[in-house]
Amino acid sequence: MIFQKPSTRTRVSFEVAMHELGGHALNLSSSELQLARGETIEDTARVLSGYVNVIMARVYHHNDLIELADAAKVPVINGLSDLYHPCQILADLLTIHEAKGRLEGLKIAWIGDGNNVCNTMLVACGKLGIDVSVAVPRGYAPSKAALEAAQEDSRKSGSKIEIVHDPKRAVVRADVVATDTFVSMGMEKEREKRLKDFLPEYQVAPTVMKLAKKDAIFMHCLPAHRGEEVASKVIDGAQSVVWQEAENRLHAQKALLALLLLGEEGLPWN
Asked: What's the Rg (C-alpha) of the chain?
């Protein structure tokens, strides 16, 4: 496990997942590796491939992950990049399925920043036939590449993908309401401007949740900034599944590792 960014859920869930599967996890910060002294990502990938069976990397720049994966001889997992956060969305989908009993035909409302979590949610919804309405301020749209991929897949799955600027419009008839911090790691210098652009309109408050379906659930990948992207009454309320969502990072990680290390034929449920 290579970490350029701090982590709670990603680090602990992957470490525990490997332990429960009977393996061992190495936790390495980029400053502990020779990357900090100029060794290339490609050379690091080649060396690590001789020691380990799988690499998980949590990076600032998505291109670093691409370089790592291209040079490695073992599977490389995106533990988070500035563009995508697939491990989080695997856990989110598991949580939604547990709560709703299905995925296809549901509607997810994303309120807030068109960030890496939003990008991945779009891609997943396009593939799985889930409608998604993303409400963002102007200038904070999700990745063009992610949106185009989602729209292309949606034509096959039948899902509806839309980007709007009105949160109230996005949450109407939503089965799931999701958000994330308005100020992601590495964006601290933009904090004042971002909060001005997002608040109060894009906060998931009780009044926003009331516009969704009565049995709608609230999701947040955490860590949450209460009073900013979400009101405490929502994240602590009866509709919130954020703690179940966080726990599911462990179960989704175990499934992912089992698939990569054992292959489909080697999985115990086959």
From this structure: 19
For this structure, is 88 an active site residue?
yes
State yes or no: is 85 an active-site residue.
yes
CATH number of 2-82, picked from 3.30.420.10, 3.40.50.1370, 3.40.1500.10, 3.10.200.10: 3.40.50.1370
Please report, for the chain, the start and end positions of each structural domain, with discontinuous segments joined by +. 2-82, 87-245
Catalytic residue check, 92: no
Class of domain 87-245: alpha beta
Query: pTM here?
Result: 0.94
**Which is the catalytic residue, given 87, 118, 125, 221?**
221
pLDDT attached to residue 37: 75
Res. 31 pLDDT band, cuts 50 70 90: confident
Query: What 3-state DSSP class applies to 56?
Result: strand
Contacts of residue 117, Cβ cutoff 8 Å, sequence gap at least 6:
85, 88, 89, 180, 221
Cβ atoms of residues 49 and 74 within 8 Å: yes
CB burial string 200-211: b at 16+ within 10 A, e below: eebbbeeebbeb
**Known catalytic membership, residue 249:** yes
Residue-level length of the chain: 270
